[in-house]
Automatic annotation (TrEMBL):
Database matches in PANTHER family: TRIFUNCTIONAL ENZYME SUBUNIT ALPHA (PTHR43612), TRIFUNCTIONAL ENZYME SUBUNIT ALPHA, MITOCHONDRIAL (PTHR43612:SF3)
Enzyme category, top tier: lyase
Pfam families reported for this sequence: 3HCDH (PF00725), 3HCDH_N (PF02737), ECH_1 (PF00378)
GO molecular function terms noted in the UniProt entry: enoyl-CoA hydratase activity; long-chain (3S)-3-hydroxyacyl-CoA dehydrogenase (NAD+) activity; NAD+ binding
Name of this protein: enoyl-CoA hydratase
Assigned EC number: 4.2.1.17
Superkingdom, natural source: Bacteria
């Protein structure tokens, strides 16, 4: 007996079992002795695990315990996936209402699910994350529909799993693999999930019902593997835990990110006792929920949602033409094709086009596309040396060399060939749109679309409007960013826009410090210990010293406020072709991989960290005062998702408010008296 189906992935349908009772959030149905529980959270395109979901499951378990069926199948009615984790918006209320007690209630419900006397199967399509994955873990078996993914990303919120993941996942798969998933927050996509043992079967949706029946008819062996048995011994876990702590400290210092370290402690102490681990998990999660780190990382989550809200709506862009097959243009084209756009890529030379197409395969593979999806993405990306795609493109993205003259020459050439109503966007990182708009075919449909390198990994895109950009163009460009899974921040034209305006003084000040005799490892270590993902010297190398020099010179010429003097050492390295990572050497030697400085700061200048960080905050305040960005949340979101600004601090303006605007302004005045006018605080501090 087949029931209602929903569209999923185009023509694919979701098999939801027999006709279900119209109950929310769980819809129940029974046929041939099998009960189907279908999660369908009302008023949302995706399931999240709320108190109502857990209480609804408890009600269903009352019936199942009273009359056990032949089996139970749990799945989602949402085409978007199984469940996206807990309702993060409820966490503040949860902390106030007594998190430990609420967690114990949730654990009791999942324990009952795990203890049902009949087989239980979770059928997962799309993502099963956080508490959603933990519900699936409480089932006996899991069937993954091709394209499914599983993850416990709580560490990204300053937490660790809180509904049984800490003991159920290590009991299911290799405990070291389980700990790695929880410590990194990374997902296991379909094939890896099957290889690890998370998914018992991987099937196409059309074969799901048969796979469920076969699984219900089969015996399952859940005896632990050799490694799991070995790690029941305290000495083995202690050794593994020491190695985990060593690796974790490199990326997540305990002072800044306590959650992964707590998780390691829990596993080391209780990894051989699921009951003790369960209680320790509850107590630890409840405590972490109240930490500033978790509050600020949850703030970062909602900042992401804030940017996503600005990306909603139809973009009306089916065909994109990219001009310039250099590093940026090639990645923009590849990413747009991976995300479903038809893309033509033009360049004056054919060799870069060949490299771009070859590199696009790597971009598609890294995005976890199947072989068929990779083929389709590459089919959508067409090298176009003659620019034939211009006549059909809804959006033309110019990623040519960073000079006004070159870009204007490009616009003169393409203007007559663009179709009526098409948008022209420049990927410039440093040039003024006001200087470029006079050469654009239609000023109202010309704007900046500033991606960050590498496009396939960097989530933020600056959507920059000049004085004549119309509202519809800006809206469509933001929606385009959303359609290719990127986070747009809307800005007004200003030297460096927002991100480069804030980042440039940070990078240039590091070079001034080096000229003063401070070692580069000391400078970078200070920034990393503040919470930046990479020190400014290594970052300058990674961006490219030639690019940094160009942006620095452009901003010094365009800003009223003084910037640090550009280092002669920087100019010399650029002249000698030592451009950083892309040439193998800059300030660092990159032949052995990414630098990982960890210097002794005992003899570092006492004002070192403030000299690096406060000018960045000051630039953010300036951009807010000048209305370059719409609001403080946009500034904080842009800096977190483009620069990795210490997420556990909640963003530069949030950090400034917590530290105290008056205190920072006073500190900057003191730095100005010692080091010069570049440290004079912006007038906007008075209003922060």
């Amino acid at each position: 007996m087949t029931g209602p189906v929903l569209k999923h992935l185009g023509e694919t349908k979701l098999e939801l079992g027999p006709a279900t009772e119209p109950r929310h959030p769980w819809r129940r149905a029974e046929a041939d002795g099998v009960v189907w529980l279908v999660l369908d959270c009302e008023g949302s395109s995706a399931n999240t695990i709320s108190r109502a979901v857990i209480e609804g499951l408890s009600d269903e378990l009352d019936r199942l315990e009273e009359t056990p069926p032949k089996g139970v199948v749990i799945r989602s009615a949402k085409p978007s996936g199984f469940a996206l984790g807990a309702d993060i918006g409820s966490f503040d209320d949860m902390a106030a209402d007594g998190a430990a007690a609420l967690l114990r209630q949730g654990h009791a419900v999942l324990d009952r699910l795990a203890a049902l006397p009949c087989p239980t199967i979770a059928v997962v399509h799309g993502p099963a994350l956080g508490a959603g994955f933990e519900i699936a873990l409480a089932c006996d078996r899991r069937i993954a529909i091709d394209g499914a993914s599983f993850g416990l990303p709580e560490v990204q919120l300053g937490l660790h799993p809180g509904l049984g993941g800490t003991f159920r996942l290590p009991a299911l798969i290799d405990p070291l693999e389980a700990m790695t998933m929880m410590l990194t927050g990374k997902s296991a996509h379909t094939r890896k999930a099957r290889k690890l043992g998370i998914a018992d079967e991987v099937v196409q949706e059309r074969h799901m019902a048969a796979a469920v029946q076969a699984m219900l008819d089969a015996e399952s062996d859940r005896s632990p593997g050799l490694k799991a048995r070995a790690l029941r011994f305290d000495q083995a876990r202690a050794l593994a835990a020491r190695q985990m702590r060593s690796e974790t400290r490199k990326k997540a210092p305990e002072d800044h990110y306590p959650a992964p370290h707590r998780l390691i402690d829990l596993w080391e102490e209780h990894g051989d006792d699921a009951q003790a681990m369960q209680q320790a998990e509850i107590d630890s999660f409840a405590e972490l929920l109240g930490t500033e780190t978790s509050k600020n990382l949850r703030r970062a989550f909602f900042l992401r949602q804030h940017l996503k809200e600005g990306a909603r709506g139809e973009d009306g862009i089916a065909h994109v033409h990219v001009i310039g097959a250099g590093a940026m243009g090639a990645e923009i084209a590849a990413w747009a094709a991976v995300k479903g756009k038809r893309v033509t890529l033009g360049d004056v030379e054919t060799a870069p086009l060949g490299r771009a197409i070859a590199d696009a395969r790597s971009v598609a593979k890294a995005a976890h596309l199947s072989d068929i999806e990779i083929r389709d993405a590459l089919d959508r990306l067409v090298p176009d040396p003659n620019g034939y795609g211009l006549a059909r493109a809804d959006l033309v993205i110019e990623a040519g060399p960073e000079t006004v003259e070159t870009k204007r020459a490009i616009y003169d050439n393409i203007g007559p060939r663009m179709k009526s109503g098409a948008i022209l966007a420049t990927n410039t990182s440093s040039l003024s749109l006001d200087d470029l708009r006079d050469g654009a075919p239609e000023a109202a449909r010309f704007a900046g679309l500033h991606f960050f390198n590498p496009v396939s990994k960097m989530q933020l895109v600056e959507v920059v409007r000049h004085a004549g950009t119309d509202d519809e163009t800006a809206r469509r460009l933001a929606a385009f960013c959303g359609s290719i899974d990127r986070l747009p921040v809307q800005l007004r034209d200003y030297p460096g826009f927002l991100v480069n305006r804030a980042l440039t003084p940070y990078l240039l000040e590091a070079m001034v410090l080096m000229d003063e005799g401070v070692d580069k490892e000391v400078i970078d270590t200070a920034a990393i210990r503040f919470g930046m993902p990479m020190g400014p010297v290594a970052l300058a190398d990674q961006v490219g010293l030639d690019i940094g020099l160009h942006v620095g010179e452009s901003l010094k010429a365009g800003l009223d406020k003084p910037l640090p003097d550009i280092s002669d050492t920087l100019r010399g390295k650029v002249k000698n072709g030592e451009l950083g990572k892309k040439t193998g050497a800059g300030f660092y030697d990159w032949s052995d991989g990414t630098p990982a400085p960890d210097a002794d700061l005992d003899d570092a200048p006492e004002d070192l960290t403030d000299r690096l960080i406060l000018p960045m905050l000051d630039a953010c305040v300036e951009c807010l005062r000048r209305d370059i960005a719409a609001d403080p949340d946009s500034v904080d979101a842009a800096m977190i998702f483009a620069t990795g600004f210490a997420p556990f601090r909640g963003g530069p303006l949030h950090y400034a408010k917590q530290r105290g605007a008056e205190e920072i302004a006073g500190r900057m005045r003191a730095l100005a008296s010692r080091h010069g006018a570049r440290f004079e605080p912006d007038p906007g501090w008075a209003d922060l």
